[in-house]
Amino acid sequence: MMQTIIVGTRGSPLASAQTRSVVDLLKKKNRSTDFKFVIKSIRTEGDDLHRKAASIPTGKEMFTGAIDLALARGEIDVAVHSLKDVPVENFLKKRTMLCAFPKRGSPNDVLISKKPRETLESLPARAKVGTSSLRRAFQLKSFRPDIEVIEIHGNVETRIKKMRQGKDLDAIILAEAGLDRLRIPKETDQVLSTDVMLPAPGQGCLAVATRSDDTKTGMVVSKIDDGATRIAAKAERAFSKKLGGGCNVPIAALATVGKNGHSLLLEGLTASKHSGSSFIVRDSIQGTTKESESLGETLATRLKEISRR
Questions:
Q1: Cβ(7)–Cβ(38) under 8 Å?
Q2: pLDDT tens-digit profile of 229-245?
């Protein structure tokens, strides 16, 4: 008998595209005659900032809380999230679990400018660049102190439209993985080096959650897990957690598994304030994949110590 598995997601174009890619993977890795996958769109606080729900925490969970709650209640069987939106302290962690991390997309950020082929280096003096990310804002100002950072919200297409049609922005910065998943051409855009713009922890990664006690669905979902992505995610999230990561703290991290499959390089960044001015604190650490979480914690501790000097 065919089992129906309900997959929950936000209703935004990007979330829908990501979820369809996960469902395609699930179908590929499991016998299509055994399972029927149904996608269910769930509205979250992140989709409507004016909507308040006492049972759903604020912060990052405004993008994931309603979906995880539906999962815990049995209204859906699987939840698909952008990993960078998943809090390092999940309020439903005892009832839900991150069961699979599909192969990571690009972790890089992209500069989309109003003038074709304009780069971060060639933007005019005092150019206005849109982003809602503190991480991006701090790194932008570190690289180009003259740039004016303008806060901008909305889904990917909305932000691009605001920049193209408005007069207040010269460029915006978005995640390359999102553009790829939405199949938005970026031939004339600048993919920013991680030396200039280190990504958010988990950027480019998807996280697929199931109920902790639903072992059957867990076995189905675990087949799409990518080992290298899981290791990188654990290192970056451990780093973020140790730093007290959240929407109000500029934190960046990128873990890379070596070609031998055993070595791990973790780069991390945060910002610190002294005498009223802010500056970037950045460092890296190397070790083995078995040490992923401890490497994240060690690097975070090191950056904390540097920030206090």
A1: yes
A2: 999 999 999 999 999 86
